[in-house]
Amino acid sequence: HRALDDVSLTVPRGSIVGLIGPSGCGKTTLVRSMLGLIAPSSGSVRVFGQDPITLAASDRQRIAYMPQLPVLFPNLSVIGNLRFVASLYGVPIRGRRRRLHEVLDFVDLDRHAHKKLADCSGGMQRRLTLAATLVHLPELIYLDEPTAGVDPILRDRFWAHFRELRNDGRTIVVPTQYVGEAVSCDHVAIISDGRLISFSTPDELRRSAFSGVPMRLVLASGWLPQAEMERIEALPFVHSVRRFDDDLMIVVDDPERDGQQLVAHLSGLGLPPVALEPIDPTFDQIFVELVERDRAATAADANTDAEDPDEVVATGESR
Asked: How far apart are CA 19 and CA 186, in angstroms?
């Protein structure tokens, strides 16, 4: 099974990079490769300029990893677990107590410090795992689904702290299924079926997802016949037209220039628009658009290969 397929990206120092994709798409495999827990079957990974598998202990102390599954000790108290992890990472004795309570306060667990972990809820255990990840002030931080099972208020608090860490020069890689969290990242990598289909800033994602600027067109007549939609789509400044709730979504390059031409065209047809305004698509819509486009292109390529036996042989030989 090919978990990752020709994924290539560079994580900028001092930034938050979100790895967005559905469950099973390869996000965790990519992070485990970055950590040196598994070796890629081909290609290479570099962390601090080195193969992560060969990193010395001093370099590993600069890294933190928050896995998806529980890794702490249920029979230890909350503070006992945190004290143990701090000792593993060599957090100095002087100032350690203060540091432990700082991270416990951050995840809202300070008042539960002496509670046995087994008696804590799943959300509390998740928060303690995050505290343990950050206790030694790492430079490079991998947070695998850090806000899973966390209430919205605490999730906002987490992301505010992640931005503080970023502003302090730390680098954070966040695999997540919460597509809306992409807006809080500096760069977003969208992964689908093991392939990297986009790596850009959130603003660039908005434009690339629709190959232009999507606009909402509201007509007084409401419904527009399919034939008329096709005529609008044939206009040279229009990329695509589709139904959007009870209105239409029209994608253009320049909202002001192309919008004026569109209004003039519709008025000439006796269909003056009630409103024509840019749409700010949600990241859920952007994600679905990019993934569905990629899967459609992959399916089309597969059909082309199946129709051309020579091409299948050539592809097989090149792998």
From this structure: 11
In sign, the C-alpha dihedral spanning 266, 271, 274, 280 is negative
Average pLDDT, the chain: 86
> Rounded to an integer, what distance in angstroms lies between the CA atom of residue 239 and that of residue 217?
14
Write the pLDDT tens digit of every residue in 37-86: 999 999 999 999 999 999 998 999 999 999 888 889 999 999 999 999 99
Q: Tokens standing for 189?
A: 């990598």
Q: Say how far apart CA 233 and CA 4 lie, in whole Å.
A: 37
CB neighbour list of residue 135: distance below 8 Å, 6 or more residues apart: 82, 85, 86, 89, 91, 99, 100, 103
Q: What is the C-alpha separation between 133 and 97, in angstroms, rounded? A: 16
Beta bridge partners of 317: none
Phi then psi dihedrals of residue 239, to 5 deg: -85, -45
Element (H, E) at 140: strand 140-143
Which residues make Cβ contacts (< 8 Å) with residue 36, sequence separation at least 6?
Answer: 45, 47, 51, 52, 53, 54, 55
Contacts of 20 (CB under 8 A, 6+ apart): 176, 177, 179, 181, 182, 188, 189, 190, 191, 287
* Rounded mean pLDDT, 218-222: 76
Q: In what order do the strands lie in the sheet with 213-219?
A: 238-244, 247-252, 213-219, 273-278
Question: What residue has token string 């990297």?
Answer: 196
